[in-house]
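Handoff note, outgoing to incoming analyst
You'll be picking up this chain. Sequence as last confirmed:
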Amino acid sequence: MKMIQRFLLLLAAAVLLNPVGQLRAAEQPLLKVMSFNIRYGAANDGTNSWPERKDLVLETIRAFDPDLLGLQEVLGFQADFLKEKLKDFGFHGVGREDGKEKGEYVPLMYRKSRFTLEDAGHFWLSETPDVAGSKSWDSSLPRMLSWVALRDRKNDRVIVFANVHFDHRGPQARLESAKLMRTRWEEFQHDNMPLIITGDFNTDEDKAPYAALVNAEGFSGTKLVDSYRVTHPQRSPNEESFGAWTGVREGSRIDWILHSPDLVTRQSVINYTQDNGRYPSDHYPVEAVLRYR
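Most recent structure output, in case you need it:
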């Protein structure tokens, strides 16, 4: 539990280090956040293979120009490409199989000119979360969460930014993963502790994992905020975030940007970027503009 304890201590430190806000709401700095499942690059995707679309992935990221970027399904060579092309960003991530370089990453990238890295870590979505490569319940693969604590130079506040990818087959694993995340959040929860979570949750907002995370169902703590639902309060049948290369929009979101009530959503969209019918990934990136409360 060493890594989990350090994560919780860091959350506590964020509260102690964050000064009482002196700026009026209108003067609070904005945060541009993107969550993007870029499809693992070793897949046999034919014309949608990584070499054919990596530049479009890069263009899509640059077009939104995020301050914080959470990525899913990233293999080492894809990480190397993005680090090389996005030199203004810091990078934190490891392979889920061994906690080093083997397997997919759920990395975070952050704008170095704006943020100072205070601390960082990972834990696995299992009954032994400090064991690299571990899996539990009905999970088909090891799954993990990576996080960073960043001091924002614009207001000297420390925020916690986490990124996750839930299992695609195991409904129990998805629920237990949400419960694990919620439990860690509630073990040390205070006001003025900004938290942002990006991820591919492989489930929609009708299911129990969403209820546990966002609505705190079964828990006593503060609800989290679904940024997209704030700016789109009327649910639409065309909110799919997994396009499967086809451009389909009919369906429900499985990719979310969540945040604590310390932040306010100003804007949130699903980005349907394509180039002559070619999409950067089988998922659409989701984007949000947040403001400190």
